[in-house]
Structure formats: structure tokens, C-alpha cells
Amino acid sequence: MKKETILVVDDSPLILEVIGKFLCNNGYETITATHGIEAIEKTFKELPDLILLDVMMPKMNGYQTCRLLKTDPETSSVPIIMLTVKDQASDKYWGMQTGADAYLSKESELTILLETIRGLLEKKQKVVQKASLIRRSSLINAVDIVTKVNDLLDRKLFEATVLNEMNLLIEKGLDDFRATVELVMGTLAKIMDYHVAAIVALDERNAECFFKINHTVSEHYLNEVQEYTMDLLKSQDIFLSPTRGISVLDADKVTQANNEKEQKKYFYNVPIRHVNKLGGMVILAHDISERMEDTEEEFLRTVVKQAYVIMENSWLYNKVKRLAITDSLTGIYNHGFLYEVLNKEYSKAVRDNLPLSFMMLDMDYFKRLNDTYGHLQGDTVLYSLSQILKANVRIYDTVGRYGGEEFAIVLQDTRVEECLTFAERIRKNIEQYNFGDGSREIHCTISIGIAHYPGTDIKNVDDLISKADKALYKAKGDGRNRVCVL
Fold first, then answer.
1. Residue 41 annotated in active site
2. Global pTM value
């Protein structure tokens, strides 16, 4: 049976002699090298079973040598034990980061070295047989090594640049989720020229999917990506409604006509796991059919995962922020945020001498509705009312739930006459609306109170709220289903 061969690399003749004799006495054959370039040459020529590699050497140190050997597919499976006089935690960390299988101090007992060698060789035999290693060449020279080192450095510089660019995106802020997606996916497009990306964000209660369009595609192309994504999610027992939880970013890049020149789509999937549980997913749809090398794919996955973390943080940040300012039942702004907006608009109106109107609305006989149809139906009515209000206001007006069955609207740069017209339209729409379902009709009415600036006795925001509240109570006292202004 052929003895296993160990390459010993060290610039000290004494260490080479001591370790060489020790290994020979324990049944191993040895070959030696005095620097990194010679070590690489002999590794490609002899393909040893294991390498003992010194760190501090001339021409090329052990870290560089280890990185190159572990990166090349012809030598990546050869176990490497790094030996050094350094024994600091940072040195061990760096040694393991270069791909070394073990890191030992030269001061370690030879018995520990022997145990480590035997353990790595046994592990290697279980994973891959030496016969399965196919070398492209039987010899590699110093010029080839320098070329390989330069290629490796170029690739690592590219990887470091991309990852650093990703890290810098965190400093851009997380306030705007859409802008975060644009920045992150734009950086990712420098590595893979995808057409459509699906970003799936998951938490304990919600799932949302965002389709980011990078290049103009047909509606058919987007539909195929969406179907693929939905099928992939279904396989994980995750179901999204076509009308909720799905958003298309850059929808203007989707054309209605099918493009006959569109090539076959290839999907690159990167699942994101949190403690062995699916936490999200990124799917890239592209037209490139060439198989990526393992190292390229590994790097791309690393970048995609880092990109996802940035987007996920922004998604969660905005979700928490949204929950903090919205009403859980209706989805419109809550009392606290409404008051904040009113303060801001009131200060602006005073500063710029602009009109401001404030409306308070209350459901008429809401208790009777709850008693008759139940609280679930009452909640449905409140939700429907909030959607009617949202659909009728201008984009720069603010609708909120003031409390219970009371709602409020802040109308900036709006004179009282305009507010009265708007309020009457809202009142009629709600009076005519059927809040029931197919089996029954339910009709409700509202009372509305209006206050405005500039107005009598309006000196601050609280005066505005108080006056609108009094106007609302007067509308109710005068018979309900009407608008009142004081």
C-alpha cells in the first residue's frame, strides 16, 4: 500500500529536517518546499495528500499560498495545516479565513500535530478519493503561479469592492423602502444583468412580494416570473393574494405586447433562512444560460443575501413606522399622527397666511348598528367608511380615525366654502352607500363638523379641534346626517 505524502513548507532547514524525520517515522512520505511559489509548483506536480504550511516565508507567505491552493479546483480538496510561531486570535482567524483546515502553533506538541494530520486525512478519504482529482496539467511554473495570484487578487478586489458598496448603502438610510430597493438592486445588477427580480419579505404575520423591473419586459414575461414565484412560495406553504401583498416596482417598464425575441428565462433563486426557517427569498429572472462557476455562484449568493438583509431591514423599519402611525382596523392614520399633521399644517397656514380647514365626522346611531348587526359588521362599516373617505380626498389631504366611530380630515390650503362643498359630497356618498352584503342592505349616515383658519377665536390647534368638535355636536343636535360649521 502506497504511503500517504505530506508536503512540508518552511524556510527553516532545521524545521524541515525535524518534521520530515518525525513524519517518516510515523509512516508518511514527505516532500519539502522553502517558500510559497515552490510549494504551489510541487502541489500541482505531486498532488500531495496533505500540506504543512508555514505562515512567514519569503516570496509568498502562507496566507497567500493557502488562499490560492484552496481557490483552485485542482487543489482545493488537499487539507492544509498552517504552522506558525504566531498564536494570537487574529492570526488564527486570518489563517482559517484563507481556507486552512487547521491552524497550529509551532510550539504545539508533535503528538498534537500527528493527531491533527490523521484526523484530516481520515476526513478527506470519506469526502473525496484522490483518484477523483483530475489535473489539467502535470506541471505548473512560476509564471503560471503569478498569473493565478493576479487573477485571484483581481477577483477578491472585485468582490471586496461590491461588498463594500453594499455596506455603504446602509448609510443611505432606511426611511424609503422603494428607494432602498432601487439602490440595492441597482448595485446587484452590476454583477448579474437580470430582467426581473422578485423580493419576498416574510415575518411571523405577513408576507409581501415586490417585483423589481430592471429591463423592459413584456406583460407575458412578468406574468411568467410571477407564476414561478407564486409556485415556489406555495411549495413552502406560503400563499399570497394577487390583489394584496404583491407590488410591481417600475411598472412603466412593462409593455403590453409580447416580445417574440424574448429568450428562454432562467431563474436564480436565493432562499434567505433565519434559524433554519425561511425568512425571505430573492429570485432573479434573466436570459443568460451559461453555467456559473462554483466560486462565482457562491459569491453571488453572498451578495444577494447581503442585499436582502439591507432591503429587509428597510421593509421592517417602514412596517413598524407604518404601524406606529396607522389605525389597526381601518389602515388609515391614527389619532396621534393626525394631531401631528394638523399641528404642522396649522403652523404652515399661520406662517404663509394660507386657509386651513378641519373636519370631524361621526357615524350616526352607530351603537344601534352594533346592537342590530353585531360588532363584526360594525367593524366592516368603519373600514368601508375609511376607504370612502380615502377615495374622495386629494392626495395632499390627511384622513385619520380620531377615535371610536369618529374620523377627521385635514384639508390644507382650503377655504371654508370649498370645505363645505366637499363635506356635502362626502355626506351624500355615504348616505347612498350600501354597507351590507348580497343578502341585506345596510345604510348609514354621518354628521360633520367643520372649523377653519383664519376664523373667529382660532388662536391655536386646540381651538381648531374644539370648534370642529362643537360643530359636530351641533350637527347631531340639529337632527344628524348634516354638515355644520361654526
1. no
2. 0.52
